[in-house]
Amino acid sequence: MSQENILGFYGHDHDVLDNYFKEFQTLKNQDYARARASFRAFKFGLQRHILWEDQILFPVFETRTGMKDRGPTAVMRQEHILIKEALEALHQKVRRNDPDSGNEEEALIDLLSRHNQKEEGVLYPAIDQLMTAEEKKSLFKQMQDVPKEEYASCGCKHH
Ligand SMILES: [Fe+2]
Ligand SMILES: [Fe+2]
Q1: Domain ranges, residue 57
Q2: Chain-wide mean pLDDT for the chain?
Q3: pTM to 2 decimals?
Q4: What's the domain count of the chain?
C-alpha cells in the first residue's frame, strides 16, 4: 500500500471495485464460474473498504471535528448499512448461480455510485485537510494490518 493522500487512495479503491463489478456483469452470461470469482473479489474488496472507513478512516474525522452522531460520517455509516444489505441481496442470487440479478445489481450500483461521489467530492478532501503526511502514513499502515479474516468471508461455504 503506497503512501498517498486519502482521496487518491480511496478513490482508486472505488475504481478497482467498480471494475470487479463490471467484470461480474460481463461474465455472468458467459461463464458463471468466472463471474463468481469476480463477484467474490468485489464482495471481499467492498467489505474491506467499508471496514477501513468505518473503523479506521471515519474516526479520524469524528475525533478531529467532534462531529460523530451527526454530520457526513454518520450519513456515510448509515449508507454503508444499506449498501451491505444490497450486496447481500445480490450475493443470494450469486450463491444460487442465478444470473437473473439485474434488479439487485442496479440497486447496489445506484447506492454505491451516489455514495462514492459524496465521499470523493466532500469527505475525503476534508479528511485530507485534517491530516499530516505522517499521520496518513500511519493510517495506511493500520489499514494494511487488518487481518484478512475480518473481511474475506461471505458467511456461506459456496465460494
Ligand atoms: Fe463508504
Ligand atoms: Fe468509500
Answers
A1: 6-150
A2: 94
A3: 0.94
A4: 1
